[in-house]
Amino acid sequence: MKLRNLICLFLLCGGVGIPLHGAASTCSVTHMQAEMSQSDISIKKKELNEFRKKYKLTAPKANPNEVEAALMQIQMYQLERVNATTVTGSSLLNKDKITLQQGRDIAKTVRALAFAAFKDGGSAKKDLFLFLDYLFSQNIIESIPKYKYSNYNDVRKVPADLLSALPVCDDMRKSRLIVAVQHLLEADQLNLSDEEIRQKVNSDYIYNVVPHLFVCAVHNPDEEQAIKDLSAFSHFLSACTQYSPSGYDVLKPDGTGFHHNTHYNGYMYSYRTWVEYMGRLKGTSFRIEKEAYQRMSKAVVSVYLMAVRSNSDKNRYFANSMAGRHPFTGLGVNFSQRLFETLIEVGADVLGIPYDKELAAYYNYFYKTKKYKDAPELNADGFYQFNYSPAGVYRQDNWVAVMRCPTTNFWGGEIYSKTNRFGRYQSHGTLEILYEGGLSKCGYPADKEKKSAGWDWNMMPGSTTVHYTDWKEMMPNKNDTDRFDQKSATTNFAGALSWKDCGIFASAFDQDDRWGSRRFEPTNLSFCKSVFAIDGMLFSLGTDISAKGAYPDEWITATNLFQSILSKDCKQLIVDGKEIEKGKELVIDSQAPAWIVAPTTTGYFIPKGHDKLIIKHEEQTTPASVGMAVDSGKEVAAKAYLNHGVKPGKKNYQFMVVPGTTPEKMKELAAQQEKERIFKVIAAQDSVHVIKHLPSATTAYAFFAPASNLSAGVVCASETELLVMERPDKAGKKLELALCNPNLRPETIAKNNWKPTPTQVSIELKGKWTVEAGDKDLQVSLERNSSGNTILKTTLSEGSPAYVSLVNK
After folding, report:
1. Same domain for 329 and 408?
2. Structural domain span for residue 518
């Protein structure tokens, strides 16, 4: 397919480039097929026959009881053959009123009769053909109600049962059966234009339906039609990789994958089916498009970048804030090593090279191998931004730090019936540190059978929350079944800016208590927070922490540093050099700084001036994620939090985080930071956070609102909400800048439908500057103001970053 109007961008993430490609053309597959020459058709027929040899139909299976029931079923229908293709029967099946259950039964009957025909032939085959011809004559299969793509049982099993008859059908019945099943599967959408498909992409459809579509295409006895269907199938696989609008499924420009209207790694098992069938088409003229491969590669790499490394498919997990409705159990990357290799092979085919060295380098890194020896060695340590999540990910050594917070469109916790009942705080400005080697090393609940009973649901690491004292109150409408998606009420400023060896995450949040109707007693919780990550450390800053409402006075508001379930992998809790044993609780007042090494080996330094610091090492009893109907569980946990009080206003915090440390190292770093030799907080206001990393002279700004008259560095004002990082050279003659607005500024079109709108950026820089270098496609204008300073203007969109190098005139 020829691609027109292709937009090629380049997104720099943590110093590592990941290609970003625009939408494909809108020409239909029908037009493309019309252009095929006789030579093309000849090649495709040969390839079709190779497909048929390689991907043979499997023999139908059924047990004796199913066969007996099927024979009784067709007797009840009182079938009578009118001619070679037409059969009539009783009125038991009214094609205008067929139920979903009848559809299941019909498909099961076809499978059982097909098994008998395959095994015995003769009269059994006549029975099968009689029943099939009845279904065809009366258009019964086409009249089965369309199964929801998310109905994983029916949408996978019913078509499979029907298609199981193909091995025993003659060509005429094969054709009729395939046409009927294609109608049931709504396969006509494969022939839509790229733009039409972009508006309809569905993760469940890809996962559940694509295998049936392939069978229908390859095994259509009409070779000409089979070629058309395979071409449409290939077109569909490619077109589905386009970046979809608003909250639609699946792929987004930053590499995230969507389902249920937001970033949802747990549902990206659709990538498995997608890449498997891309792999089946490689080496043929039906191969997918180059741009589709590049977008899919970006998506797969992105999922891996969010997770810890492993030398196998085991123990490769991402943060609980990204777990959707499966807390602590839905964290595994569900894309296998073998499929990763398949994707590399697809790349070799579409690019016409031995293999894609960039993707192979990622593979070697993620799986700690040198399988692809000629690939360049890759170190993917660094900071990555995913503003369609919205999340920031900081990778170093054997750990990954993940920061996340909801917006009005992107929920942070999905609560279903008897599932994730206490997940309200799942990503309330969280900062999670994940370690390689197993969930217990992260301090997470690792026993799946317990469904996380024993975890304190008030305290996701890094989050700011109102602590419930009654677990029932923490569930939507205080029951085990009502649904809820936790979003912000009005705020959309949440996300990250990545730059070279560092990055910043920031969020402004106000809690929503409604999901259609009010589901919780309002706490009106709000906060602004930022995390600056550099040099293997993270500095977290929070301001404007407030909560109020008619809720009980024992519900404190807290910023939760960590919670660790104690295990053989997670043992000691150290505070100021001393081990805190089980049963102990410390309360450290505001005049005393403190440093902690959590049982996970994550270090924390809290400078003096903090709200009351509570540190506990004790046994706790809490309910499982399924709700109150099952027994609670016990765990021994170590945890620490800053108590901001009951219904506080304008509270704040700051602390430094050092993953993978020792008490000795943490003591030294704490002493340095106490003297402000590592990080220095320049501004901690409601409108702006400014933090400077002194060793590198890098300053990070989080503008939650327009602000001016800053004096920390070169940037002294911004007219919009914005993330900025600056780094001058030692002589002050050159300045490097990174800019991003993670706020996508969504403009509502209709329910669950919105579009991002760009930000017109204007920042003031001290002194006179001119552009030395910048992004290839970045349009930057510089002008002088009355103060003799430089005004830098540019346009940012979809949370993407911009990088500019300036020189002092």
Report:
1. no
2. 383-682
Q: Which residues pair with 216 in a beta bridge?
A: none
pLDDT one-digit tens code per residue, 117-167? 999 999 999 999 999 999 999 999 999 998 888 889 999 999 999 999 999
Whole-angstrom CA distances from 138 to 112, 187, 282, 425, 524 are: 20, 20, 39, 54, 59
Model pTM? 0.94
Q: Are residues 49 and 66 located together in one domain of the fold?
A: no
Would the pLDDT of 16 be above 60? no
- Asked if pLDDT for residue 471 goes beyond 50, the answer is yes
Do residues 164 and 278 both lie within one domain? no
The CATH number covering residue 786 comes to 2.60.220.10
First to last CA, the chain: 50
d(CA 405, CA 423): 13
H or E stretch including 123?
helix 122-137
Within a domain: 693: no
User: What element of type H or E holds 546?
Assistant: strand 537-546
Number of CB atoms found within 10 A of residue 227's CB: 23
What is the model's pLDDT at position 4?
28
d(CA 116, CA 774): 70
508: confidence class by pLDDT, cuts 50, 70, 90: very high
Q: Which residues contact 322 (CB under 8 A, 6 or more apart)?
A: 263, 265, 266, 306, 331, 389, 391, 402, 404, 427
318-344 pLDDT, tens digit each: 999 999 999 999 999 999 999 999 999
**At 576, is the secondary structure helix, strand, or coil?**
coil
Residue 260's SS3 state is coil
Please tell me the predicted confidence (pLDDT) of residue 776.
64
d(C-alpha 376, C-alpha 357), whole Å: 7
As a whole number of angstroms, the distance between CA 180 and CA 345 comes to 34
CA distances from 617 to 264, 355, 796 (A): 33, 52, 47
Q: How many domains does the chain have?
A: 4
Strands 391-396 and 753-755: unpaired
Q: Which of 722, 318, 778, 762 is nearest to 497 (CA)?
A: 722
Instruction: Give the residue among 718, 713, 723 at the shortest CA–CA distance from 767.
Output: 713
**pLDDT recorded at residue 27:** 47
Residue type at 369 in one-letter notation: T
Helices (H) and strands (E) counted in the chain, each on its own, are 16, 41
Q: What is the dihedral of CA 61, 63, 65, 70, to 10 degrees?
A: 10
